[in-house]
Amino acid sequence: MTDATDRPRFSIVIPTLDEESTIALTLNRARSSFGDSAELIVVDGGSRDQTRSLASTTARVLVSPRGRGAQLRSGSQEARGELVVFLHADTHLEPDVGPRVETAFRDPRVVVGCCRFAVDPPAKRFSRFALLERGINWRTRLLGTATGDQAIVTRRESLERIGGVPPLPLFEDIVLVRRLRQLGRFVRLDVTARTSRRRWEEQGFWPTVLQHWALRAGFWLRISPGRLADWYERRRVAR
What we know:
about 240 residues; alpha/beta
């Protein structure tokens, strides 16, 4: 049985699906951000490439049914760290951010936090990507919410209190933050999370933005995440 004193301070949970081109770099950057003692957990949703074998050299690898909510739930249930960081496979933080995250969570009232959103490579001033960054960060400040691209951080004990990550096919991040905020404060951390531009570049910038707006509108109109996920998948396959 593991003694409490042996627990890592951070557990980094990364959901993957066919991420062989990014996973090694993501894990190396996560280690640089949170230190050698951080627990790295990769939860794979059925990759057909070398994602799992590449990740296993650095991280603990779990296999879960496909779906970000289900994958994050599986990983967080196995996490031993006091603070759990949910990190996308195409997102990275700055080096040595662990102390800044710890400082924010020294306040016992803080239950959940997220990082500033930015794209990678960095956006030029006044570009459409700069507009996207400002819009997402403005939404976080105004509404006190976050998306998975912003690297959501919470206490493991708080996750246990709300019953874990909701195993939803879409918008698990929004529902997760909403439930955690019922336990205490939400903060935007003094840390930047940079997410690859790849999906905006592959699918087209404005079509991707409009698709996200349509999905979010459906969610707020109480259309089930399952139906929205089916619609999203049909459109993705149609391309």
